[in-house]
Amino acid sequence: MTPVATVRRPVHHDMTRTASSSVPDRRLLVAIHDVSPRSEAAVDALAARLERHLGGPNFAMLVIPDHWRQAPIAGNTAFHARLRNWADMGIEMFLHGWCHRDETPAAHGLAGFKGKHMTAGEGEFLNLPHAQALARMREGKSMLEDILGRPVAGFIAPAWLYGEGALAALDEVGFALAEDHMKVWQPRTGRVLSRGPVVTWASRSPGRIRSSLWFSALARHALPILPTLRVAVHPGDTTVPALLSSIDATLARFVQSHRPSRYASLLA
C-alpha cells in the first residue's frame, strides 16, 4: 500500500500558516474528488500537495463506493483502513454518488445537454428516478459510515449534477450538507450556506485543459471578494503539469485572504 500522508496526528480544527487567520469569516474549502481504490496513488499525491498549501489536512475527500463498477470499497479492508486514517486526521469525508457513471442518460433536452457537455458520461444522479437515487444514497451513506465509524460530512453528486429525483432523495436521507457548481446548501431545510463557483480543472481534452487554466487564472483575480472560496481537484489533474502549476498558483493566492476551513464550519 502507498504510505499514509505526511501528517501523523489527528487534526480536528482549522489550521493556517498565512495572514488569512486574521479574517476567520473568510473560508477556503478544498476537496479531492473521486477517491477510490482505483485513484489511490493520485489521491496521495494530491493530499500531500494540499497539505503543503493549507498547513495540514484541512480539506475534504469525496468517496465513490464503486467507481465505474470496477473498484468496490465493500470488502476492501486495506482501503477501509486508509479511509478511517484520513478521517482520523481531520479530513472531512463526503459520499460522492455510488458509481460515478451515468447509467440512465437522457437523449434530449436540458438533461441531455448537461450529460453530454458538462461531464464525460459521469452525471450519475442527473437522470436517476427518485427510488434509485434514494437507494444509492442510503446504501452508500450506510456503508461509508460503517467503515468510518462516524457520520459522513454530506453528499456531493458526481459532476455536481442533480436531477429532480436526486434532489427529492437528498431531503429524505439526512445529509448535513450538499454542494453543486454554484452553492453549498443544507438539504433538510434548503438553506443556502455559500454561493459562488467552484474552481476546478479538467484534464480529459486539450480544450478542457485550456478553458480550466483560463478560468482559474480569472478566479485568482476575481473571486477573493467572496466570503467563501471553493476549490476542487481530481486524480486526473496529476497527469498534466500545467494543471498542477495552476492548482499551486490558485491555492497560494487564496490562502492569502481566506482561512483553510471545514465544510462543517458553514453550519456554525
UniProtKB/TrEMBL annotation:
Q: What InterPro entries is this protein classified in?
A: DUF2334, Glyco_hydro/deAcase_b/a-brl
- Ranges in coiled-coil conformation: none
Q: What is a single Pfam family found in this protein's UniProt entry?
A: DUF2334
Kindly list the biological process annotations in GO that this record carries: carbohydrate metabolic process
Gene3D superfamilies recorded for this chain? Answer: Glycoside hydrolase/deacetylase
Q: What is this protein identified as?
A: Polysaccharide deacetylase
